[in-house]
Design goal:
single chain, mainly alpha, two-stranded antiparallel sheet, two-stranded antiparallel ribbon
C-alpha cells in the first residue's frame, strides 16, 4: 500500500525511491512487525486473561507438570497474525499474487485455529474442532487460494488440471536439494502434493506447540530462511539473475514474499518475548495452524517443497513421532516413545523444559544452515 503511494512520489522527494527495493521494505516490514507485537503485547495479554478467566488452557495429553501452567491465556496467535498482516499490507506490492496467496492461507488457517480455540475456551475443554473438520477446511482454504491466485502465477511450466476446469501456470516440477538436474514433473499430481506439504506443515507446527517458545523459535528461523530463498528466486540485480546462476527456477515477483517473511519473523520475535519460558501467553491453534500454513505455502510458492523437509525439520520430526507412536500402539500395543510428540518424551526422561526448547532451537538453526548450503552445493 505505502509502496504504491510513496514510490511514485520519488520524483518530487527522492528519499521515497527506497520503496522500490524489496530489501528495504523487507527490513522495514520486520521492524514494524516487531514494534507492533512488542507494543500491543501487554494490552493483548490482559484482554485475553480477562476473557479467559477460570479456564485452563493446558492440553490433557501432556505430562503432569504442565498442570501448573493452568490460567495462562491462549489465542496469543491473534497478535502474531495482526503483526504479520499490517506490515505486509503496508509495505508489500499488493498487485503481487504471491503475497495475496500467502496472506490468504495464513489468515484462513488462523480462522480455523480461532474457531478451534474459541470452542475450547467457551466449552472449557480441550477438544475443539474435530480433526476431520480441521483437515477439510485446511484443504478447502488452500485449494481456494490456489484457484484464486495460483492459477495466474507466471512460472515457466504449465500444469493442466482438467478436473478443476483450469490450466495453471504453477510449476508442477519438484526440485531436489543438492541435485542440480533432478526435478521430475508431477503434472496433475502436483496439487495434492502441494496440499500435503501445506497441511502437513500446519499440523506439524500445531503438534510442536507444546512447550513455552518451542514452536515459535523454529518458526522464526524458517521464516528468515524462506525470506532468503524468496529473495534469491525472484531477484535480478543489474541484469544478473541470481536464481539462474544457482541453477534454481527464477520466479518473477517472488522477491515480494521476503517482505511477508520478514513480518513473520518480526512478529515471531515479539511474540517470543511474551511466550518464552515461563510463558505469559500461549499462541493457541489460531497461531500454530496459521504459522504452519504460512511456512507450507512459502515452500510451495518458492519451489522448495522438498527442501522444506530440512528447513522445517523440527516440525516434521514432531509429526512423525506422533504417527510412529499411533501406528506402533495400534499394531503391537506398545509405545515407541514415553509420550508423543517427541518433546514430551524428553520431558519424561527428565530433561528440563528450557533445555529441550533451546536444543530444538539449535537444531532448527543447523537445519536452516544446511538448507541454505544447498543453494551452492548442487
Amino acid at each position: 500500500m505505502l509502496y504504491r503511494w510513496l514510490y511514485p512520489l520519488a520524483t518530487r522527494f527522492p528519499p521515497f525511491n527506497v520503496f522500490r527495493y524489496p530489501s528495504f521494505r523487507m527490513v522495514a516490514s520486520g521492524l514494524l512487525a516487531l514494534v507492533l507485537g512488542m507494543l500491543l503485547g501487554p494490552w493483548f495479554i490482559r484482554e485475553l486473561k480477562e476473557r479467559q478467566y477460570g479456564v485452563s488452557n493446558v492440553r490433557e495429553d501432556t505430562p503432569e507438570q504442565h498442570k501448573k501452567k493452568g490460567g495462562t491465556p491462549t489465542m496469543g496467535g491473534g497478535l502474531i497474525l495482526f503483526s504479520v498482516a499490517l506490515p505486509t499490507l503496508l509495505l508489500a506490492d499488493l498487485s503481487n499474487r504471491y503475497v495475496w496467496m500467502a496472506l490468504t492461507v495464513t489468515l484462513g488457517y488462523g480462522a480455523i485455529g480461532f474457531a478451534d480455540d474459541f470452542l475450547k475456551v467457551s466449552k472449557k475443554n480441550s477438544k475443539g474442532l474435530p480433526g476431520k473438520q480441521k483437515l477439510f477446511w485446511q484443504a478447502a482454504i488452500f485449494v481456494g487460494a490456489w484457484l484464486a491466485f495460483g492459477t495466474d502465477l507466471h512460472f515457466h511450466r504449465v500444469a493442466e488440471f482438467p478436473f478443476l476446469g483450469v490450466g495453471s501456470h504453477l510449476d508442477s516440477h519438484i526440485y531436489f536439494p543438492f541435485a542440480r538436474h533432478l526435478h521430475p514433473d508431477l503434472h496433475w499430481l502436483y496439487l495434492p502434493f502441494a496440499l500435503l506439504v501445506v497441511v502437513g506443515t500446519s499440523n506439524g507446527v500445531n503438534l510442536t506447540d507444546g512447550l513455552d517458545g518451542l514452536a515459535i523459535g523454529p518458526t522464526i528461523v524458517s521464516a528468515v530462511t524462506f525470506g532468503v530463498l524468496a529473495w534469491v528466486a525472484g531477484s535480478v540485480i543489474a541484469g544478473f539473475n541470481i536464481a539462474h546462476y544457482l541453477y534454481l527456477p527464477h520466479l518473477d515477483g517472488a522477491e515480494e514474499l521476503s517482505v511477508f517473511c520478514a513480518a513473520l519473523a518480526g512478529s515471531g520475535i515479539a511474540f517470543l518475548w511474551y511466550n518464552a519460558y515461563p510463558a505469559s501467553v500461549f499462541m493457541g491453534d489460531v497461531g500454530s495452524l496459521a504459522l504452519g500454513g504460512a511456512l507450507g505455502t512459502l515452500a510451495v510458492l518458492t519451489k522448495n517443497e522438498l527442501l522444506s523437509a530440512i528447513i522445517d525439520g523440527i516440525f516434521l520430526v514432531e509429526a512423525l513421532s506422533v504417527m510412529i507412536q499411533v501406528a506402533s500402539f495400534k499394531t503391537t500395543g506398545k509405545r515407541v516413545f514415553r509420550m508423543a510428540p517427541i518433546h514430551h518424551h524428553f520431558e519424561l526422561k527428565g530433561w528440563a523444559e528450557p533445555k529441550i526448547i533451546v536444543r530444538f532451537w539449535i537444531l532448527s538453526i543447523l537445519l536452516s544452515l544446511a538448507s541454505l548450503a544447498s543453494l551452492k552445493l548442487r
